[in-house]
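Ligand-bound model needed. 2-phosphoglycolic acid.
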Amino acid sequence: MIVAANWKMNLSLEAAGALAHGLAMRRLGSVRRLLFVPHPYVLPMSIRLQASDVRLGGQDCHQAESGAHTGDVSAMMLRDCGAVTVLLGHSERRSDHSESSALVAAKAAQALAYGLDIVVCIGETLAERQAGVAEDVVIQQLRDSLPTEMPAGKIIIAYEPVWAIGTGMVASLDDIAAMHQAIAKALPSSQNGTGEGSIPVLYGGSVKADNAADIFALPHVSGGLVGGASLELRAFDAICDAAADITTVAGT
Ligand code: PGA
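Prediction:
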C-alpha cells in the first residue's frame, strides 16, 4: 500500500516543517508514504525527512534537461535538492497550465532519466463522466501520458476523477473499482498485477480518514493520493493507518 500526500500550494514554511516533523516521527513499515511539496520546500523538507522513511517529491518538472524556461524546475534540480519522486500530469497542472498527455509523457521520460520515480495522474471531468465516456478518456490519457520506456518499480499511476478533487465528492466504490479494473487491464500484462515490477494504481479525490479503508480494500487499488487531508497530521496518519490495516489483512 502507498499513501501519497500532495500539499499543492499550501502551508507556510514553518507549518510545512512542523508537519514534516510529525510525519518523520512515525515509521510505517508496511505502508510506503510519499510527500509532494511545493518546489521551494523540497530542500528544507529533505533535511527534515532525512532519517525518515517518507519519500519526498516535487509536484512537477520540466520536460527539458535545462535551458531558458523561466519559472520552471528541472528533474535534475529536484533530485539535487533531495527529491526521489515527482508528481506529473495532475489535473490542476493539466487545467491551469494546459498540459497535454504528450507533454506529461515527455516530462515522465525526463524525470526517469534523472532517476526519479514518477506518479502520473489521470482522470475524467464531470462532463465526461456524465457523457458516459469516462473510461475511454482515462484509458486514452493513460496510454498518452506514459513514457515509451517503462522501467520496473519506478512508475505509479494515480486515478483522480477531476470532479472529486477538493470537492468532498468521492466517486462511488463501484465506479472506483470499475475504473481501476479498466486501468489494470490496459497496462502491459507484465505490469498489471501485484507482483514485482507491477505498476501500482492509487485513487485520489477527497480521500479522508472515514472513507480510506473502504477505498483501499477495493481490488486493483494500491493506495491513495491525498490533497486536503494531507495538510493535517492526524487526518493523514489515520489514512495511513487504514492502508496499514489492509496490508496486515492481505499479509495474513
Ligand atoms: P483532495 O486532492 O484529496 O483534496 O481531493 C487530491 C489531489 O488532488 O491529489
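Residues 2-251 form a domain with the TIM Barrel fold (CATH 3.20.20.70).
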